[in-house]
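In response to a reviewer's request, we include the raw inputs and outputs for one of the modeled complexes. The two entities were modeled together in a single run.
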Amino acid sequence: MRRRTIVITLFVSVVLAAVTAGGFVVSMGGVAASSGTVFLADCLRLTPHVSGDKLAMRERECRKREAATSHVNVTADVERKAQLRAASHSIAPAPARVIGVVVDHQGPVGTNQTFHATSHWAGEVDGRWYLVYAGARANPASNQNTQSELRVYREATELNGGGPNVFIASYVPPDGESQPLTIMSATASVLTIGTSTGATLTFNVEHRAFSNE
Amino acid sequence: MRSRHVAGVLALAVWALLAGGAASAHAMPLTDQSYYWNTTNTESAEEAGCLQGLADALGETSSEVILDFGGQFSDYSGTESTSDALEFTNSEIENISLSFARGYYICTGEDTTTTLILGGGTNNSKDAISKSGGEAWAKVADAVASAVLEDPGEAKQVVIWGADDLEVGYSTGGAASNWATGFLERTLLERSELLYLDYGGAEGCPTSTHDNGDCTGGESGWDQDREYLVSYGIDGAPVPEIYYNRPPGSPVNAEQWAEVAEYSLEI
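The model returned the following structure tokens for the whole complex.
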């Protein structure tokens, strides 16, 4: 009797790689290397639920999708999405993105008790959008500043409705100050940071590191 | 046991959780949000699809979403949601699914590589748990899949499947198998090659043995072999429904599915 395998997933698409990988290797054995192979591999990777005899069915469905989509031009596709979004009645158009240095004393959502912001910078680095907030860590009990700090977030790809900005890390300047930092200016992704003592630092967003000027 | 939620409330809830991610160094991981759908408004579907697209593009991850439309009518013309008796025609189900897919596609924006598997879901709580019911549901799924395939950009990022919340407590095991067989045969006939996601429970099934024990406490004809057949063996892909998995109780639902999996390895 043939061996049948069942793959258990949780309700949030847990990938059980072992079973999938096993089936994948078998299925790919007779497929010549080509861009279609890449598409097929990606397509099959989406569906870790299936293996063994059911892979043939999945392969046929994946190949059908490949045939339908092989001529899609990425640039034109992105432009078309933007046009569709602009024409949609249910999805708000993406607002214009504010880039550069903004002095607004507005910190990241939910941090007003623990972080006193003075300013932030928004910009693109290597194709990704970042937000850097300058300020100081604060003690919520006393409301006192405890540590000068920059907080770096990765911004949502789209701004409609915000999307979640993903916290990356906090960066503390080398001098051990406690008062809020201020972003004074930016050149490309290098930020000029002022401290409460009048000193000036730079922070390279790409490398995520401070340096003294 | 079925849990019926309000789609809009769930949409807001997930959005709140996502938005809250900015406040913590340990942001909640992006996830896949499925819905007990409760409106015929296609704009809501496009919005919900957009949220998933935004999350996937941001997290650079693909997702799997089920839209549950309730149980099928005996004439296979549509469904009725269990929680609020809202009725959907098959045409409305197709349009809602297409709107969700469209919203996802639009809102992935510059990301053109993440992919959504969208399963249009029914359950075995009503009248059409039969081979003809499975055939009818496959026809609905096939109509959505065919429409998506006509749009190359969208087809690149959206995969349409069927889905069924097949549970021990709502139809006989034999009827569920017949439904699964009907779905399979129709997709083969249409050459659509679709699977369905079985997001039902294995309630009442053994938690520590895997010798084809009975699944008790529900309708007749359910055992581990039946769970295997309807969740995978015929034309399904399992998305186990797990409610009771936290201490101090034992992870009963997970144990039930684990034993079904063990059973499947030995037959």
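As requested, we also summarize the result in words. Residues 17-69 of chain A form one domain. Chain A is about 25% helix and 30% strand.
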